[in-house]
Every structure is written in structure tokens, then in C-alpha cells.
């Protein structure tokens, strides 16, 4: 699958244009944009309508939550694969306190600390904490594959039992349990069932994350109750004491279990308490939250792709496993179609759709066909699904193409941005790229491998519910040969 776009050899020759868009009247402009974003148009139409109106993928707009939670909702949206890259350059954009955009939840949600996600790389603690995360992942490198496979094997039994009993299995619940059990065992060296967390880890994490993200979401109320819902979610931030009990259980479970990890943090120079709150955020928000979001999306796209792709995946996976004598890093690296399928799912539906950065200096932003001046201090906002579905980079961007990144298609991986960085780059202590980026890719390949070692094909169905979509597996056809 080749690109349809060639970058200009000299972007400075692009015409410098006035930045289009408007913030509207104070207070009323942000409210109007917020209502359009959540209720009148919906997220994707909100952006596509403005692109069409301004004939530009870079423009001024407001982003939620707006009044009264956010004091300043003004952003410059960058919605193409070229301009989006500015958000990775921490020499030009600041990331201080903008993990969730134009507002920051109370530090009461994170034990009184500004955890790593809210720190800019220029702050000394950022590099210290991120080095801790990276060193922790390196120390557990040999554990990744056997631990994930073991966790997954335990849950496949439950999945099959549900389908036998009910005719379908809830994939979201399956992925939630898988994600929490795996990441907790990985970083804390203990089964969460053997701690005070018990089997309630996913539920406690979900509640805690929901309180963080409440001003950025909807409850699915009927249209007649739009204003009521909007006022409930975006008039005042929810106080952290509402979730204090669950957070304390998660904290205590990690503090008493992750002794080796916390010892490692202290050796690097971190206070044990601060390290534990940061580890909790990584385990429960970054790792669990990311995996529980992405796995259902990955399996939905693969499931809907149909039996032809399933046969090709099964053939590749079983052939490589036979030849390599098992599932290993080397075996996974030889599964070119399996890798491509994971990258394609990350491209078409990245698990974290938003990125923000505040200009550290006056800048010139480039899109495919124009340049725009940005002033120091202005907030830049990137909507990742538009950047990674850029039709000037990817042919048929709205289609899931399993082979997109096979062969020559690998050259397009530099435009896959799901991890707050390019897929072709690796995280360092000095950037804001997800420290677990390679782990996410690895376990995503593993879940595809384990599915097609066990099954020839499977069918999925998406059900719309009040707060979100639920993915159900309707059938599993056991492997005819291994």
C-alpha cells in the first residue's frame, strides 16, 4: 500500500496564510463549540465540518471542557499527518499540566503529586520517573511473553464457557480482566486476587479513570436532557474524595506487592511514596486504560475483516510457531502480517485520540499545502484519528487494510502516531512518548497469535449501549490444525 503524497522538498516555500477559525464570544463561544462537539454534531463531524468550512486542516477552535472547569479553552487544531508532528517536539512545545488538555484534575486523584504524565521533560522529576519506568520494563523483559500467555490461557476457558452458556461472550469484560491481571502481575509480582484488591481491580480502575475523564465525556442521556447532562459534567469538577476509598485500596495493593519495583525506584533517587503513586498511574491509567481500550478495538477490526484474513493470519502464525519451536520474540518478529494488522488497528483507531502542547516560542506550522504562524503560549491540539487517517498519506484511510504495512508499506509506519510519538521511534527519558509503547505492540501481537493458534476464525458483533459500545464474540471456530 503506497503513499499518495510526497512531502515538499522545502516546506519553507509553502505560502504563509492567515490562521483561519474563530473562538467566538468569550464564554458563549466555548459553550457553543462544546455543545456542537458533544451533542449537535458529534466529535468527528465537529472537526470535519470545520475542515470543510475553513478549507484547512489547521484552524482555531475551542476544546472541551470549557467553562467553568477550564479557564481557557482556546486551541489551534492540527488535523493532518504533517502538522501533527509538532506535538512530539518538546524543544518547541511544552507539556506541563496538559495531559488531558485544557484542564487538569486535582492532584487529590494522584496522592497529592503531579505524576509523570503531567510533567514537562524540562522538569527534573520527569526524567527521573521515566527512567524508573523504562528500567522497570527492561528488568521484566523476559517475563512479558510467558506471563501474558499464562494470563490469557486462564481467561480463554471463561470466554469459551460464556459462549457455550449464553451464545456470546462480552469481549470488553474479557479484555478488562486480562489487562488488569497482566499489568498488575507484571509490575507488582503478585496476582491481584491475593491482595485486598481482589477481583475488583478493573472496576476500581474504571471508576477512578471515569472521574478523571468525566468533563471530557458524555453519559448518553436522551437529547431532551442534554443541558442537564452538560451542566452535571462540566460545571464543577468532581471532588477526589468521592473516589478516595478505591484509590487507597489500589495504592495499598501496589505498595505492599510491588516491593521490588519500589526498591528499584528508591535506588534511582525517587521517594517511595511518590514512586508508588506514579506506578499506580502507569499501571491503572496508562497500561490498563490503554490495553482495555485498544484490545476490543483490535479484535473488532480483525473479527470484522472476515475469514480470508483470518486464514492468512492462522497460516502465518502456525507456520512460524512450528518453524521456531514456539512463541518467542524471534517468532513474533517474523510474523509480518500479524505485525501489520496490529499497526493498522493502531492507525485507524489509536487508543489515545488527543495530544496537546503549548508553544514555547513563535512557530511556523506546516500542513500539506500551507504554513501558519503560531504565537508563543498558544495551545496546540492534535486529534490523532484524523492525523493517522490522513488521505494524503494513506490510500483508503477509512478502511481496515490488514496488509497495509507489509513490504514497502513499512515505510508508512513513521505516520502511525498512537504512542505520542512515531511508531519508528523508541521512548527515552527526555521525551513524552509512552514508555510502554513496545510492550503494547508486543502484547497486541500476542493476543492475535493466541487467538489463531486456538481458532480458525471468530465472529464479533458491536452493540451500542448507554455509555459505550460493547463488542461481543458470537462464535469461535476451533483450529482445524496447528
Automatic annotation (TrEMBL):
A Pfam family reported for this protein in Swiss-Prot or TrEMBL: p450
Q: Which residues bind heme?
A: 434
- What InterPro entries has UniProt attached to this entry? Cyt_P450 (IPR001128), Cyt_P450_E_grp-IV (IPR002403), Cyt_P450_sf (IPR036396)
Out of the domains of life, which is the source? Eukaryota
One GO BP annotation is: fatty acid metabolic process
Task: Please give one Gene Ontology molecular function term for this protein.
Answer: heme binding
UniProt keywords (A-Z) are: Heme, Iron, Lyase, Metal-binding
Name its co-factor(s).
heme
Family, as annotated: Belongs to the cytochrome P450 family.
Protein name stated in the entry: Allene oxide synthase
Amino acid at each position: 500500500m503506497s503513499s499518495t503524497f510526497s512531502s515538499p522538498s522545502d516546506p519553507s516555500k509553502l505560502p504563509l496564510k492567515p490562521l483561519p477559525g474563530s473562538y467566538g464570544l468569550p464564554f458563549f463561544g466555548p459553550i457553543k463549540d462544546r455543545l456542537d462537539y458533544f451533542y449537535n454534531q458529534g466529535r468527528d463531524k465537529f472537526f470535519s465540518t470545520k475542515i470543510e468550512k475553513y478549507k484547512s486542516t489547521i484552524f482555531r477552535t475551542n476544546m472541551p471542557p470549557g467553562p467553568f472547569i477550564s479557564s481557557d479553552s482556546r486551541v489551534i487544531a492540527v488535523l493532518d499527518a504533517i502538522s501533527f508532528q509538532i506535538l512530539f517536539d518538546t524543544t518547541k512545545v511544552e507539556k506541563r499540566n496538559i495531559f488531558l488538555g485544557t484542564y487538569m484534575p486535582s492532584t487529590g486523584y494522584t496522592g497529592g503529586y503531579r505524576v509523570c504524565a503531567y510533567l514537562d521533560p524540562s522538569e527534573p522529576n520527569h526524567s527521573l520517573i521515566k527512567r524508573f519506568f523504562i528500567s522497570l520494563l527492561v528488568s521484566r523483559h523476559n517475563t512479558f511473553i510467558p506471563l501474558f500467555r499464562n494470563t490469557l490461557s486462564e481467561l480463554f476457558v471463561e470466554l469459551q464457557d460464556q459462549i457455550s452458556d449464553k451464545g456470546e461472550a462480552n469481549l470488553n469484560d474479557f479484555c478488562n480482566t486480562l489487562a488488569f491481571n497482566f499489568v498488575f502481575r507484571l509490575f507488582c509480582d503478585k496476582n491481584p486476587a491475593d491482595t485486598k484488591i481482589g477481583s475488583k481491580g478493573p472496576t476500581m480502575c474504571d471508576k477512578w479513570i471515569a472521574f478523571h475523564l468525566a468533563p471530557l465525556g458524555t453519559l448518553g442521556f436522551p437529547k431532551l436532557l442534554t443541558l442537564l447532562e452538560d451542566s452535571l459534567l462540566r460545571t464543577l469538577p468532581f471532588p477526589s474524595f468521592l473516589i478516595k476509598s478505591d484509590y487507597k485500596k489500589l495504592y495499598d495493593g501496589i505498595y505492599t506487592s510491588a516491593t521490588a519495583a519500589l526498591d528499584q525506584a528508591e535506588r534511582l533517587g525517587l521517594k517511595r511514596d511518590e514512586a508508588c503513586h506514579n506506578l499506580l498511574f502507569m499501571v491503572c491509567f496508562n497500561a490498563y486504560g490503554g490495553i482495555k481500550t485498544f484490545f476490543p478495538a483490535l479484535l473488532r477490526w480483525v473479527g470484522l475483516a472476515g475469514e480470508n484474513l483470518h486464514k492468512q493470519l492462522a497460516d502465518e502464525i502456525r507456520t512460524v510457531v512450528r518453524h521456531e519451536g514456539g512463541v518467542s520474540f524471534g517468532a513474533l518478529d517474523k510474523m509480518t502480517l500479524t505485525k501489520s494488522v496490529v499497526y493498522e488497528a493502531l492507525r485507524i483507531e489509536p487508543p489515545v485520540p488527543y495530544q496537546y502542547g503549548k508553544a514555547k516560542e513563535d512557530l511556523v506550522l506546516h500542513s500539506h499545502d500551507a504554513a501558519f504562524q503560531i504565537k508563543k503560549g498558544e495551545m496546540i491540539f492534535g486529534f490523532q484519528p484524523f492525523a493517522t487517517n490522513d488521505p494524503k498519506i494513506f490510500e483508503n484511510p477509512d478502511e481496515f487494510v490488514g496488509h497495509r504495512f507489509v513490504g514497502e508499506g513499512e515505510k508508512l509506519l513513521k505516520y502511525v502516531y498512537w504512542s505520542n510519538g512515531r511508531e519508528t521511534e523508541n521512548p527515552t527519558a527526555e521525551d513524552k512518548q509512552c514508555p510502554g509503547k513496545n510492550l503494547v505492540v508486543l502484547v497486541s501481537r500476542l493476543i492475535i497469535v493466541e487467538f489463531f493458534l486456538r481458532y480458525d476464525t471468530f465472529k464479533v458483533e458491536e452493540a451500542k449501549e448507554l455509555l459505550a459500545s460493547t463488542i461481543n464474540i458470537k462464535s469461535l471456530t476451533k483450529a482445524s490444525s496447528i
